[in-house]
Amino acid sequence: MSQISTEQKILKAAEAEFLAKGFDGARTTSIARAAGVTHAMLHYYFRSKEKLFQQIISEKFSHLQGIMLSSLLDADKPLMEKISQAIEQHLDFLAANPDLPRFLLTILSGNPELLSTAMSTLNVSGMSSIIQAEIDRNAEAGLCRRIDARMLLLDIVSLNIFSFISAPVISLLLGSFTESPEFIEQRKKNNVEIILNKLRP
């Protein structure tokens, strides 16, 4: 068994444990058992539950940033198309990790310091600078309104993440529709339209 496959088994088991039981309720003994490794081996690779958490969240954030930047840095696409694609990719990421937003919310409420190291992989200021430069160029050409890219990113994240943070309540109101692919597709169209309306001249 290679080192990489062992690490990935541990990370996969840890992610399931964290999402099911929260950070405080997660146990490294349970993670090791689910991963099919000894407790000593788990600590050899990751040393602590905190290190496991930081590795998982860092990888999630890095993946999310990468897929969004792939759209925003595409020089062949107009601004509106870039923004639309970034919104849709963010929603696809959330749909693939539906329990992650509520889990992170509990971390922010009880152990915000746990996120500091994991979030260091994010370059939000760099991403907003890229978008701001694009907005400014398009605004000069009369193709969009000049708005603050930081507020735009905040709007995107807020709109997209709400459906997942409030999923239990929304499911009570709308039923199983919220679990269907159609729900995500409709959220994409709705959220893209709201965001693009802020940009249209």
Name the helicity range: over 70%
Low-pLDDT segments: none
User: Based on DSSP secondary structure assignment, what is the total number of beta strands?
Assistant: 0
Could you tell me how far the N terminus lies from the C terminus, measured between alpha carbons in angstroms?
Answer: 57 Å
What does this structure look like?
There is one protein chain. This protein is mostly helical and 201 residues long. The protein has helices at 3-25, 28-35, 39-46, 49-72, 79-96, 100-110, 113-119, 124-140, 149-165, 167-174, 181-199. The longest helix is centred in the first third of the chain and has 24 residues, at 49-72. The chain is globular, with a radius of gyration of 19 Å.
Task: Quickly list its features.
mainly alpha; 201 residues; 11 helices
Summarize the structure.
With 201 residues, the protein is mainly α. It has eleven helices and no strands.
Please render the helix and strand layout as text.
Blueprint: H1 3-25, H2 28-35, H3 39-46, H4 49-72, H5 79-96, H6 100-110, H7 113-119, H8 124-140, H9 149-165, H10 167-174, H11 181-199
Helix pairs in contact: 1-2, 1-4, 1-6, 4-5, 4-7, 5-9, 5-11, 9-11
